[in-house]
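Quarterly update from the structural biology core.
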Amino acid sequence: MHPKASVFVFCVILLMQACRPLLAQTPPPAQPDAPGLLERLAEHARKVKDTVHGLGETALDFAGAYYEEHIQPVTASYVEWASNAIIPKISDFIDRRFGTSHLGHMG
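Predicted structure, tokenized:
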């Protein structure tokens, strides 16, 4: 090691030894009602829950808009077809099988 470097290291160590009692006498800085770990975790969990809830609402709105624009127009024709073609056939089958229509007497 270079002689100047060893003198520097010696001075730093000596300075640290001299300042140690001063640091020990200094009171730690007071923290005004610092929140505990559980309180911080609870606050963080609330923030995450709110974020996830907001994302869920956005996804639900997007899914609803997608359904109204892309799926409902296609399925509406199938529902109309089923109402006009299938329901009367089922009603006729029940009339032939049981003699009277039971669809109107449910409930």
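The CA atoms of residues 25 and 70 lie 74 Å apart.
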